[in-house]
Predict the structure.
Amino acid sequence: MIEIKKLSRSFGNLLAVDNLNLDVGNEIFGLLGPNGAGKSTTVMMLTTLLRPSSGTAKVCGYDIVKDSKKVRSKISYVPQDMAVDRKLTGRENVMLYAKLYGIPDRNSKVDEVIEMMGLSDRADDLVAKYSGGMRRRLELAQALVHNPEVLFLDEPTLGLDVGGRKKIWEHIKMLKAEGMTIFMTTHYLEEAEKYCNRVAIIDKGRITAIGSPENLVSSAGENASLNDVFLEKVKTPEEQAGFNFTQFRNLLRRR
Amino acid sequence: MKAIYYYFERDFVKWLRGRVTVISSLVMPAAWLVFVGLALPTKFTDNYLQFITPGILVMTTLFSSLQGGSLMIFDKILGFLNKFLAMPSPRESMLYGKILFISVRGLLQATVILLIAAFLGVRILKPIHIVLIYLTLFMFSVFFSAVSTMIGLYLSDHDSYAAVNSMISMPLFFTSSALMPYEVMPAWLRTLAKLNPVSYAIDSVRMLFEGGIPVNGIIGLAIGAGIMVLLGTYQFRKAVV
């Protein structure tokens, strides 16, 4: 579904994505990495919002630069910002997307996706009255209104409570079961370990590990978790600067 | 084409639901009309209200248009723009929908000012003049909403937008022919006023109030609006890849 070949993107001197090669099939694929690793930049290139500096990528067989409009008709993109209109009702928010995508028979389609996301009884309330989890589900409803083949989710569970996160994941699993490909980024490694078919760890624009969570975890040793794999593969700025525990403790005592 | 309307509809419904903003945007022009229009002692005319009404109408649409760029800023920083741009509908329709909404909002606000002016005794001759006043104001609105959305796309936060807006809106108004005719202006101001695009709109509307047809003014504004929309489209394409 997604073929990435030698994809790079730089911002001035900063190389945000560095020669990325990646193939994603029909699966739930999680892109993990520290802040600033190039996750969002990668997603924005694949969703045609950002032009690559070099390299190519194809989504559903279409080139992300030359056939960007075709790519956009096959995908949906949910950024991490929770961009839903507070002064519109849930139904109006979804209806806007149905109209913009030119969905035939849009009333029933809008009802269907709202029902699917479990928002039917609150569909005519203003979004201002929605909880964070409901807003996220509303965004998923918007994204599903045109039956995309690939769904790009940037931090879909960010800032949600445990129940809200679980619900989002259940919906993501259901969409995968219906044949959709899901490409997502997340910071919650336990969730990635539990729900993703495959994950890749990206650091400073390069992939440092890729595979199914089980394989990555078992290669890291007994009783390991994805967290251990992550810490092993990713050099945090603190580590690079040389974090001095004694010095830090002395600093705290002095106060 | 339909997408433009859907984007327009989104902003319009949101605007109507924000009751405070609907009313607050009308208070200042109405205050100008009543407190300045009815009160300022002038020598060049014995009906200053009649003279200043075109200026206030244009001011209403000017400020409303310049305010409009903040809608673009918010859509950009809150993530709406990226979501819209990742859809297959023509990307520019988002920009045109915004320009259309800002312009229509300006016309609705101008309507309220026109009604207040009529209530205070300002008269218009024929229906055709009213139609042409709206056409003139619409062209003018499109011109400045294209400018303000361009500024909005260029800047990255709302504070700098507000700063730019307050920096250009008042000087544009005061260096136009809104408050006094060219004859009584000091020479330096007259030069500025003749160059100011706001004066074109005011002079045209004033001529319509007096019963004339400002052919040159309307054509000039239409060309200006067209150029600004083209520039806006160019900048939008560049900004969004």
The interface with chain A takes residues 2-3, 6-7, 9-10, 13-14, 17-18, 78-80, 82-89, 240-241 of chain B (CB under 8 Å). DSSP finds ten helices and no strands in chain B.
